[in-house]
Amino acid sequence: MILRALPLLLSACILLQGCGSQERSREREGEASPSSATILDTLIQLRDASGRTLSLQGSPGRILSLVPSGSETLLAIGAGGRLVGRTDFDEVQGVAHLPSVGGGLHPNLEAILALDPHLVIRVADDTDTRTPLRLDEMGIPHFSIDPRSIESVRGIIRDLGIIT
Fold first, then answer.
1. pTM above 0.90, yes or no
2. How far apart are CA 126 and CA 148, in angstroms?
3. pLDDT at residue 41, as a whole number
C-alpha cells in the first residue's frame, strides 16, 4: 500500500512546493496568478470540475469524501485526519474506521448531515444532480473532482492541497 501511495505523495509534494513558491514570487512582483486558486489571508477560492466556484473562509477541519481517490489523495498529502466519512467503495485502510454514507453517487444525505462536514468532496457527474442541489440546500460546501486523466489528477492534488 505504501508503494502504491508513494508516487501520489511525491507528486503532491512537488506540485505543492512549486505552487507555493510561484504564488509568493508573483505576489512580490505584483503579478496576477494564473492559477484557478486565489488565497487572500484565509479566503480560499477554487473552481471545481463542474465549473462551480468554491469559496471557503479558512481551511475546512471536517471533510467528507464521496470519491475514493479523493480520500486516498487526502491521506497521501497528510490531511487524512480531517476526514469524517467515506463511501462503501473506499478500500484503503486509512479510512476503514470512518462511517460510510453509502455510495459516492446518490449518497445517504441524512448520514452526511449527521457527520457535520465543513466540506464534501464529490465526483463531477451529471447523473447525480440531486446530491449537489441537496448539499446547497443544507448549506454544506462541496467541491467536485473528475479523476479521469493524469492532468486532472495533478489538478486534484493541487486543489486538495490548497484546500487543506
1. no
2. 15
3. 56
